[in-house]
Amino acid sequence: MAKLTLHDLGDADLRGRRVVTRVDFNVPLDDQGRISDDTRIRATLPTLDRLRETGARVVLLSHLGRPKGKPNPAMSLRPVAERLTELLGRRVDFVPETSGAAAEQAAGSLGDGEVLLLENTRFDAGDEANDPAISEALARLGDLYVNDAFGAAHRAHASTTGVAEAMKRGGKRAAAGLLMAQELEYLGRALDQPRRPFVAILGGSKISGKIDVIRALLPRADRLLIGGAMANTFFRALGLATGDSLVEPDRVELAAELLREAGDKLVIPEDVVVARALDDSGSAQTVGRDAIGDGFRALDVGPVTRTRFAGELARAGTVLWNGPLGVFEEPAFAAGTEFVARALAEATGRGAVTVIGGGDSAAAVAVLGLADRFTHVSTGGGASLEFMEGKELPGIAVLSDREG
Ligand code: ADP
Ligand code: MG
User: Fold this and answer.
1) pLDDT digits (tens, 9 = 90+) for 233-247
2) pLDDT by residue (tens digit) across 29-49?
3) DSSP code of 109?
4) Given the CA of residue 210, which atom of ligand 1 is nearest to it?
5) CB < 8 Å & 24+ apart, contacts of 207-212
6) CB of residue 358 inside a 6 A radius of ligand 1
7) Which amino acids are annotated catalytic?
């Protein structure tokens, strides 16, 4: 069933209403406590603009870092309120409480179009514990709940699910924000109604973390391209030597099973870039997958594989990419990821739908300056992975169904 989103709510639903809005302001801070990247704050601006323009009164909730249920000044949201004030061009009040009387008082005195930000939800252990008392306290702050924090949607916390349930019990509604709605639309459409051929690219470090994604994508995708360290476990399944490469010995049988099941749908690398160590780029060389020597480790996909992958992307109607194809953090082993990212950007240019999920994958395309060359780059790392696995995310499941 489709979920209610902010797109479905008219001005009359919002004007003068207090809207408890869960956002993902989990921004990186430098050692001076300054915000080093405000992408996540900017990503919420469409929702905040829409709420303000309609005269809603906005109460913002977010977590930041892992304060483990205790106040920690180094993880205060105060600097975020200051940055948001600059971005919105109007004052955002900061209330140094996570809920309770002071928060209710502040929420109650908001005027139409005004915004306040409460302190880090995770300063209270009740958030991650999904404590009903905290959920009720948060629900008292507003007339409507909006969740725009896709990155936290795979967690059942008081600020993501408990508050929504409490609101609904009180006859109020819970809706997806505009960023959340965009995530659901692009990830959902890529998985459920892909324009074909549908090509999935999976990389990253471990098969074990992505096995459910492989299983979920195999029946849907026309091709599944494998890179990154997980390719090594497939090499082992073919009986090949892998030197010192990262391998998951307890997943070799599983990899063999997937190869049998998938036939030529599953494409594993033909060649790799190997080196003796990550910091020994002098020893780097390209070899066939059947020629990984003793003492060497596979750290990137080779040029034959890159070209093969690019050929698949050139024909694709939809591409879903999760996981870098090599150790992209090291320039000597970044070429595979970069080549494929560029081929994917070109595919977007000729009309393919291209979606990137996964925290490190998003970081890789950002470093390459390509982030705006894809149809959609998910803001949720773990959440996008669980979505691709076909799991129901609690923060989404709890939202009100769309009426009519
Ligand atoms: P995402 O966050 O996009 O889901 P992962 O967390 O699964 O991606 O994997 C990213 C990590 O995988 C990167 O830090 C990268 O260095 C590592 N990686 C990729 N290829 C290899 C390889 N051949 N050997 C070791 N690590 C690799
Ligand atoms: Mg990762």
Assistant:
1) 999 999 999 999 999
2) 998 989 999 999 999 999 999
3) T
4) 7
5) 207/233, 207/248, 207/251, 207/254, 207/255, 208/248, 208/251, 209/385, 210/322, 210/323, 210/385, 211/251, 211/254, 212/389, 212/390, 212/391
6) yes
7) 40, 206, 359, 382
